[in-house]
Specification:
By secondary structure, the protein is mainly α. The protein has helices at 11-33, 35-44, 50-70, 74-92, 99-120; strands spanning 2-3, 6-7. Helix 2 packs across helix 3 and helix 3 (50-70) packs antiparallel against helix 4 (74-92). It is globular. InterPro entries: DoxX (IPR032808).
Amino acid sequence: MTSSTGPRPSLLDGIARVLLCLVFLHAVIGKLTGFAGVAGMIAGRGLPLAPVLLAAAVALMLVGSVLVISGYRVRLGAILLLLFLVPTTLLFHNDVADPQERIALLKNLSIMGGLLLVAERPAA
């Protein structure tokens, strides 16, 4: 279906974008409600300015999710989510000997694949 402004995203497309971002929205809530603990975990990994990094991560996840879900500047939203997810995965889910970390790594790689598909799609 097309309109004067271009093709309209389907209902299925909208549902897929919401489902793809649920994990990020859930993470934002957890990071905000447990900010000090998460910042401590980040600092425990030897990263400087943990509260600043955490605030940046929350911003990337929140803005990226809102853009992807809303259908406005979806490609930018997907890129923002990837900017959060790639370093997070490399820094925090790299112990493939641990079955839980391996699952988290594979989950994140799958989400990255979905975000790359979203970023690659033509703008509606």
